[in-house]
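I had to read the description of the data format several times before I understood it. For illustration, here is how one protein appears when written out as sequence plus structure tokens:
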Amino acid sequence: MPNPVDRRSVLLSAGTAGLLTTLPALAETGPASAEETAPAGFDPAPFARQSIKFAVIGLDHYHIMGMTAAVQRGGGKLSKFYATDPKQIADFKKQFGDIKLAKSEDEILSDKSIKLVCGAPIPDQRAPLGIRVMQAGKDYLSDKPAITTLEQLAEVRKTVAETGKIFAILYSERLEVKAAIQAGYLVEAGAIGKVIQTVNLAPHRIGNIDAGARPEWFWHKQRYGGILTDIGSHQIEQFLYYTKSTSARVVAAQTGNLAHQRFPEFEDFGDMIAAGNGGTGYIRVDWFTPDGLPTWGDGRLFLLGTEGTIELRKYIDVAGRPGGNHLFLADRKGVRHIDCNNVVLPFGHLFVRDILDRSHHAQDQQEALLAAELVLTAQKIATRPVIA
């Protein structure tokens, strides 16, 4: 793989065969097909022989299952893991086999054969873990939110500069959602012109509180960082990516606890507006997914372009189409629905290559940390909503 090279170019060139089957549809005259299926878009074959050894520390959020699987898809060989909760250990082994349970964190950090550590401990522990990992000479992949205070962010940036190691954050609502990957391809191909605004709605289901659906730390703001820091980190990263903003500021933000007063530190609603050098973004996050919806949340992303629009229904189409990964494209020729379930997820393959090549094709380091900075800033300045 050429090095250096723009990471967006890597995504496009790696999936050239698949993307080219999409491009003619954009150039045809006459009405577009109302129903389409997106091609794979990415060819993993060139990455088939790459390999690294990696380990896992911290299983407090089960996003770690998807993180581990993504690295394995890219050629990662899971060597060992460290956790202390018996149920978490049993669940992890059930999914990934009889992987060695390390006796301590230090057993992993001192193992020179391990090049990467993936971590999903309680959120306020993630940045300190990442700093220790980088200081031990390894790269780090964190669940979001990877950073819960601006002070942690400053230490992360300092350690990245000192060690030259990668502090990656798996913003899975873009990097591990096929419709979001396809939207990126279409934006790069000019399907809707220049993206000038993103609107992202991200409701989540809180589960049965009385049945212990959430751990104790979930209710304490110091542990999870606040709703914009936590959930909103996904959405602000998408704003940066699709508008191609390399700098941005928070225009306004608000957070509140509107229906869970028995947990006074909890926030169940938040929204924010951001302005970047590539466009603007509006984000709303909440814990109000109704029990009747057959998935954890109706995540929706709207991309406003100068020549068209894209809407993603990531997890469900309430109009009745089965499954998730629905993309709706409106342009000068018409409106079409694109089923994105055949799209190949590139993150794991590109991330393992980044570790081997010391590159940043899977995720731009500065963008990942800028996303964290924006939500931390929004959380800090957020006002309380006025509800009549």
